[in-house]
Amino acid sequence: ELKVEQNPLFLSMQEGKNYTIYCNYSTTSDRLYWYRQDPGKSLESLFVLLSNGAVKQEGRLMASLDTKARLSTLHITAAVHDLSATYFCAVDMRAYSGGGADGLTFGKGTHLIIQP
Amino acid sequence: KAGVTQTPRYLIKTRGQQVTLSCSPISGHRSVSWYQQTPGQGLQFLFEYFSETQRNKGNFPGRFSGRQFSNSRSEMNVSTLELGDSALYLCASSLAWTGTYEQYFGPGTRLTVT
């Protein structure tokens, strides 16, 4: 059974600081996604990581994937209040199962609060 | 390009009733997946449809069912509702069920069971 673990689950930080959210998963996959969710809202796609060593950046967020370590990171640089949200990583196993995998498997999410 | 739409957005039902939720994927997307989100269990996969066929099913009881129509629109049905079925139900569409296509999520239907 695929397990996806995020840490930390809760993070309170000040504006201007840097921090990293970690996503570990238990089974081989080279497809990992990061999503953002604001309170009461749906999931917004942030990054799609499709190969070992993949690095994507958008504004103050940068995501990377190390498939050998089964680890993805989401790095926040010089945080601003608008980045306060819950961030989810999700692993996609569908390509490895001939269609028998269970869709996306999500981590529990990292609830990020950025204080002025 | 219109995004994924879900109807209704909010729903209140009583225990024992049944409910049908609808999802219209992004135009051209043939894969539709459903997820349940609760504070306790987080985001859990329900099922995925592609070309009117259920490809995958998550670990949910048979009370949860779904279908997909020829225009790729999908519905999910929950029969004999229980209090624990209160959740945000999210639909996601993608170009295909395999390959490198990411899933795009709809706004969700918030179901409250009383």
Describe the structure.
The complex is a heterodimer of chains A (about 120) and B (about 110). With about 120 residues, chain A is mostly beta strands. Chain A has no helices and 11 strands. Chain A has strands at about 5, 10-15, 20-25, 30-35, 45-50, 55-60, 60-65, 70-75, 85-90, 105, 110-115. In chain A, strand 4 (about 30-35) and strand 5 form a beta hairpin. The mean pLDDT of chain A is about 90. Chain B has about 110 residues and is an all-beta fold. Chain B has no helices and 11 strands. Chain B has strands spanning about 5, 10-15, 20-25, 30-40, 40-50, 55, 65-70, 75-80, 85-95, 105, 110-114. In chain B, the strands form 2 sheets. In chain B, strands 2, 4, 5, 6, 9, 10 and 11 form a 7-stranded mixed β-sheet that branches. In chain B, strands 1-3-8-7 form a 4-stranded antiparallel β-sheet, with no helix packed on it. In chain B, a hairpin with a 5-residue loop joins strand 7 (about 65-70) and strand 8 (about 75-80). Chain B is globular. The chains are: A mainly beta (about 120), B mainly beta (about 110). The interface between A and B is medium-sized, with 25 and 26 residues.
Average residue-wise pLDDT of chain B = 93
Through-space gap between termini of chain B: 37 Å
Which of globular, elongated, flat, extended, rod-shaped describes the shape of chain A?
globular
Helix and strand sequence of chain B:
EEEEEEEEEEE
**Helix fraction of chain B?**
under 10%
